[in-house]
Amino acid sequence: MTDAAWETLSDQAVAAAGVVYFLALLAHLVEWASLRETGGEGDGGADLPPVRRQRVAMFGRLGLLLTALACAVHFVSLLGRGLAADPNRVPWGNMYEFTLSGTFVVTLMYLVLYRKFSLAWMAPLILAFVLSTLMVAVIWLHSEVTPLTEALNSYWLVIHVVSAVIATGAFTIGGILSAVYLVKDRRGDATSGPWARVPSQAILDRVSYRIHAFGFPVWTFAVLITGPIWAHEAWSSYWNWDPKEVWAFITWVVYAAYLHARSTAGWKGRNAAIVALVGLATLWFNFVGINFFSTNSQHSYAEGAPAFVVEP
């Protein structure tokens, strides 16, 4: 296949993944709508009539299957972006490609953790986030495939960005859990309907903590180890007070404070969830905001309208 054919395949795969994600979201919304008379927290519809209970289970399985299919097609879009470049490269050369990679990791991580943490109830939230972010990427961030710039053309790109993307996916899922915790804190425990499927606040708090605890050392590796090493290789300096470097460090400090707060008596639950959401806000501002509001960042490389990202 030619480079142009690979790029076309990538664009078509993104569109196809978006359609399948949307169908998966619809399936899960039908599943949730069928639970409106469910009794008992997290019972999965045990008090529904058998026929209706079967429909709930069917649409839940269909939604999961479609999510896995969309994730596979999503991967094809990333593969196509990398093979469309001459020479072939990893698909992390600009903000559009990083957005594709980040949303792919969020979906993949959700599927991996689906059974371990019983995350079936999160499906509509994850799918809505991934689908809306992909729409933003396609409409506003899309750019043509180009070779890597000299600063990006390094094996440290793979090491640094892989760790940053994984941490971003973990922090995003952990942040969604923290947001749901705060909503449930205001609503209270539901005994019927879809909200009855949402785990207790204690479980939300614990799962969010575990996912953040996984993401933090990965982010530390990306920001405080591979980032400075790559910066020294590219610019002969480990630290340049670049806006993205500063905001990446701010994000690290906030999440360090979250983990400390979560392990300190009196700061579990609501207070820790608020800190986690502050961390998520700094993370995504660093990812998106710096590229649009900073004109002197060495980590932003202009091509067309939006500047694009190296380090989230």
Characterize the structure shown.
The chain is mainly alpha-helical and 312 residues long. The protein has one domain. It has helices at residues 3-33, 50-84, 95-113, 123-141, 155-187, 201-235, 243-262, 270-293; strands spanning 301-302, 307-308. Strands 1-2 form a two-stranded antiparallel sheet. The chain starts with a helix and ends with a strand.
What kind of sheet is the major sheet? Answer: 2 strands, antiparallel
Based on helices, strands and strand pairing, what is the structural class?
mainly alpha
Beta percentage is under 5%
Helix content: 55-70%
Low-confidence stretches: 38-44, 301-312
**Overall average residue pLDDT:** 85
Identify the overall geometry: flat
> Distance between termini?
32 Å
Work out the radius of gyration. 21 Å
Keywords: Cytochrome c-type biogenesis, Membrane, Transmembrane, Transmembrane helix
Domain Cytochrome c assembly protein: 92-293
Transmembrane segments: 12-30, 62-83, 95-113, 125-143, 155-183, 211-231, 246-261, 273-293
Main location: membrane
